[in-house]
Amino acid sequence: MNKSRGRSSRAGARRHPDGLRQIVAALADRKAVDPLVLDLRGLSGATDYFAIASGTSDAHVRGMAEHLMARLPPHHVEGLGQGRWVLLDYVDVVVHLFHPELREFYQLERLWADAPPVTLGEVGIAG
């Protein structure tokens, strides 16, 4: 993936990094609940995409994170020990894996409501 944050532009073609497809596929493999990808290009200089998903329990959240880390090692990880909210930083993509109660509490989707969602089909995942 591109190692410089925020370089891409929404004005260009809607091309998404291959790493995003790998992330979405890995989350689907582990039965992520309500997965969502937000396109932050043009809205944030920190990253291009947020991938957000829930697990059914702390163990499920940790399991998704560990599976994803085994397939695609992240640049940085936060929250893995607790499994309530795990953040995996892939530079161009930041993955947020939540216990359902915390996802409801923090409401990242609402906070980033200006960011258009990316459909699974756009990243090459049948949904």
How is the secondary structure organized here?
Layout: H1 18-29, E1 33-39, E2 49-54, H2 58-71, E3 76-78, E4 85-89, E5 93-98, H3 100-106, H4 108-111, E6 117-118
Parallel strand pairs: 2-5
Antiparallel strand pairs: 1-2, 1-6, 3-4, 4-5
Give a quick summary of the entry.
The chain is α+β, with helices and mostly antiparallel strands.
Looking at the overall shape, the CATH architecture is 2-Layer Sandwich
Q: Please, how many helices? A: 4
Q: Give the fraction of residues assigned to helices.
A: 25-40%
Q: Mind telling me the CATH superfamily name?
A: Beta Polymerase, domain 2
Give the strand line-up of the largest sheet. Answer: 3-4-5-2-1-6
Mean pLDDT: 87
Broad CATH class: Alpha Beta
Radius of gyration: 13 Å
In the predicted model, the low-confidence regions spanning at least 5 consecutive residues are 1-13
CATH topology: Beta Polymerase, domain 2
Strand content: 15-25%
Give the biggest sheet: 6 strands, mixed
Taken from the alpha-carbon principal axes, the silhouette is: globular
How far apart are the termini? 23 Å
User: How many structural domains in the coordinates?
Assistant: 1
Q: Please tally the β strands and state the result.
A: 6
Which structural class do the helices and strands define? alpha+beta
Give the ordered list of helices and strands: HEEHEEEHHE
What brief labels describe this structure?
disordered N terminus, alpha+beta, globular, 127 residues, 6 strands, Beta Polymerase, domain 2, single chain
